[in-house]
Design a protein that fits this description.
Mean pLDDT: 92
CATH architecture of the largest domain: 3-Layer(aba) Sandwich
Structural class: alpha/beta
CATH class of the largest domain: Alpha Beta
Distance between the termini: 46 Å
Strand order of the largest sheet: 2-1-3-8-7-6
CATH superfamily of the largest domain: MoaB/Mog-like domain
Number of strands: 17
CATH topology of the largest domain: Molybdenum Cofactor Biosythetic Enzyme, Chain A
């Protein structure tokens, strides 16, 4: 049975929505990969009684808890005090922690405020966790059935301390059998359509299936237990790949590093040593912005070119002619052109769709797609950029 882990984040800025709790998401990914069962994420504001109540509950129900935030020098940083009061433990002055905090200020030629002394007050029996990147030392302590780890809320400090001091201690404290997470990264179909593709696949109850829909892609996740038969796992991955088809642009978890759509296109373009020229209309320069830093994008321009709303011309024929003309006057290997039809009202309306055409001219000829894009203008712009890039990705993948 997997050890139960909870993540507890402290800070008024979290519960009021002023900042997003990226720490909890990152820690969850680490914990799941290690073999923990992450049972809860909890965020509590700067309220001592609520912190005390939560600590009591977690100590009885979890095997491990990673806590972030509330270790600073100000009056709203209540974590150490909450631990002391919740479990009737005195706070003791840690001289080494104080010296490290003082040295942090000395290295920057700044005088240490008296309030920072508070950060050196740790619960009796706790193990200090040194912070070489900030002023807030962390600490760990066993309370009830739970081993608590308290880390700073600053993401960089938290990650460094977790990886350097907490991660190496897990094997001595817990029997962990790492699960394997396989993620199919898809583009071009929504969650409901993807669900239809895989509906008839038989999935063992030991395998957890999940979806995550983002702005730029949809992820389908399969979480395999550590002792799941390798051949059965490979067969299931292969069946998912076959059913999802060209909508999959990368599969994470098989050993090779993967990224977003542009990251995968970048690998394919570099492998083929080819270059690209782009004319954007509906995406309004966003396609080029997404490809910033990609050396294969040799030229890019935005043209306020709308074919109009009346079907009096063959849009695709015009696009093809322009693609060949562009190629004749450029040094790029491939040319990607984008056009759309529809009036200004359709462009700005959330309810009305825009019809977009994409033409890709390569050494093997013309490749083209047509799409209807709806939603706010920002979504139309983003989808136009991604759908155009996806045509390039599909061509490169099939080549």
């Amino acid at each position: 049975m997997k050890p139960i882990l909870e993540i507890f984040s402290q800070g008024e800025e979290l519960v009021t929505g002023q900042i997003v709790d990226t720490n909890a998401a990152w820690l969850s990914q680490q914990a799941v990969a290690l073999g923990f069962r992450v049972a809860r994420h909890t965020a509590v504001g700067d309220n001592l009684s609520e912190l005390i109540a939560l600590l009591h509950d977690i100590a009885q129900r979890a095997d491990c808890c990673i806590c972030t935030g509330g270790l600073g020098p100000t009056t709203d940083d209540l974590t150490a005090l909450a631990v002391a009061e919740a479990f009737n433990i005195p706070l003791l002055f840690d001289e080494q922690a104080y010296e490290q905090i003082a040295q942090f200020f000395a290295n920057r030629q700044r005088e240490m405020p008296a309030s920072n002394r508070k950060q050196a007050m740790l619960p009796k029996g706790a193990e200090r966790l040194d912070n070489h990147w900030g002023t807030a030392p962390g600490f760990s302590i066993k309370l009830g059935r739970c081993w608590f780890v308290f880390l700073p809320g600053v993401p960089m400090e938290m990650k460094q301390m977790f990886q350097g001091q907490i991660l190496p201690s897990f094997p001595q404290r817990f029997f962990l059998k790492p699960s394997l997470l396989i993620t199919f990264k898809t583009f071009g179909a929504g969650e409901s359509a993807l669900q239809e593709f895989i509906n008839t696949i038989e999935i063992s109850p030991l395998v957890e299936l999940g979806f995550r829909a983002g702005t730029d892609d949809v992820h389908i996740k399969l979480l395999f237990p550590a002792d799941y038969p390798k051949q059965d796992m490979q067969s299931l991955i292969a069946e998912f790949s076959q059913r999802l088809g060209d909508f999959v642009f990368a599969i994470d978890g098989l050993g090779e590093e993967t990224g977003d759509l542009v990251y995968e296109i970048d690998k394919l373009m570099k492998a083929r040593n080819v270059t690209l020229g782009v004319i954007e209309t509906l995406s309004h320069g966003l396609l080029a912005a997404k490809c910033m830093g990609c050396d294969w994008l040799l030229s890019s321009s935005y043209q306020h070119y709308n074919m109009g709303s009346e079907a009096i011309i063959d849009v695709m024929a015009v696009a093809e002619t322009m693609a060949y003309e562009y190629k004749k006057n450029s040094v790029t290997d491939y040319v990607l052109l984008q056009f759309y039809t529809g009036d200004k009202d359709s462009l700005h309306s959330k309810e009305k769709s825009i019809e977009m055409y994409v033409v890709l001219l390569t050494d093997t000829g013309l490749h083209k797609t047509r799409h209807l894009i709806a939603g706010p203008i920002q979504r139309k712009q983003n989808q136009a950029a991604l759908l155009s890039l996806d045509l390039l990705r599909r061509y490169l993948s099939a080549k």
